Amino acid sequence: MKPAPFDYHAPESVDEAIDLLSSFGDEGKALAGGQSFVPLLAMRLTHFPHLVDLNRVSAMAGIERVGDRMRIGAMTRQAAIEQSTEVATLVPLLAAATPLIGHFQIRNRGTIGGSLAHADPASEYPAVALTLGAGFEIQSAEGPRRVAATEFFRSRWTTCLSPEELLVAVDFPVRSPATGYAVEEVARRPGDFALVGVTCAIGVNESGRVEDAAITLFGVADVPWRAAASEDLLRSGEGDLDVVGRAAAEGLRSVDDVHASAAYRRHMSTVLVTRAARRALEEARRG
Ligand SMILES: Cc1cc2nc3c(=O)[nH]c(=O)nc-3n(C[C@H](O)[C@H](O)[C@H](O)COP(=O)(O)OP(=O)(O)OC[C@H]3O[C@@H](n4cnc5c(N)ncnc54)[C@H](O)[C@@H]3O)c2cc1C
To answer: How does pLDDT run across 81-115, given as a tens digit for each residue?
Structure first.
């Protein structure tokens, strides 16, 4: 299949990209790694008269520490994140989740900004962003704005970005001492999207008691879903980890599709939350 005809634009700066997007409105769309967008165009599931290719906007790629945050440009390839020793040391959950995205060919082109802006509910990065409390740098002709991960994801494939806005960068807090992290997922084959997945961060105090917990399920609902009841149980110190896992399904309206039933997804959510919480807790207590 071939996409419907479109006009191709290749800006070299953020300002130029924003000017193009604001002049086209909802007739224009950013193109990043193309790993999700190009198949949609080729199958004619979507069409935009103007494509704004971000691949020459070098200012949008790169990984740098800014104070106690790691700032990652939206056009940074997933492969660059996977290979970064700084990310491995300072944002270990992001490093651990990255190799689970598709295959290396996809990660060589796919970008962090593309994955977040695409907001596939089965994607790893949106869940990592929610678990770690990422910040999103967004820019348009109106100027920059910053939103939290909790505001960014609205629904399946839908974010708070307007057609004129560009996601420029995302930042994550650097790891705090005595915090453990884990990512777990179930997929039919390695490289497939997760049927059910979980990212988890647990912080403990000097006596090993849980002080903070963030658990996000992905692949189960229309948006990455915080397992708040499990987090509360961990913080309260009540219940063993099986109870913490079972609480993950409280209030969860899991999706039912050709890949897996809602009941299967609920069940696996409880199993994976128990497993991830155990691993994160062990790592946190090891220090
Ligand atoms: C076979 C296969 C398996 C895959 N498996 C997984 C998987 O297991 N897990 C996973 O998470 N992903 C998976 N993916 C998707 C992959 O991670 C993509 O890289 C990602 O979803 C989109 O990133 P991209 O850079 O390719 O963006 P594109 O496909 O170029 O763009 C995606 C969307 O984001 C918008 N966009 C991109 N960048 C910006 C920006 N800076 N500002 C505003 N809007 C922007 C585009 O307009 C478009 O709507 C898979 C893809 C394939 C083909």
So the answer is: 999 999 999 999 999 999 999 999 999 999 999 99
Question: Which pLDDT belongs to residue 1?
Answer: 77
* Class of residue 219 by CB neighbours under 10 A (exposed 0-12, middle 13-18, buried 19+): buried
Residue 146 Cα, ligand 1 centroid: separation in angstroms?
21
Ligand 1 within 6 A of CB of 99: no
Structure-block tokens of residue 118: 């695409």
Residue 29's contacts (CB-CB under 8 Å, 6 or more residues apart) are 37, 48, 50, 51, 52, 163
Longest dimension (CA), the chain: 63
* Cβ of residue 118 lying under 6 Å from some atom of ligand 1: yes
Q: Is the distance from the beta carbon of residue 166 to the nearest atom of ligand 1 less than 6 Å?
A: yes
Closest protein CA for atom 19 of ligand 1? 110
pTM of the model: 0.97
- Whether the predicted pLDDT of 153 surpasses 80: yes
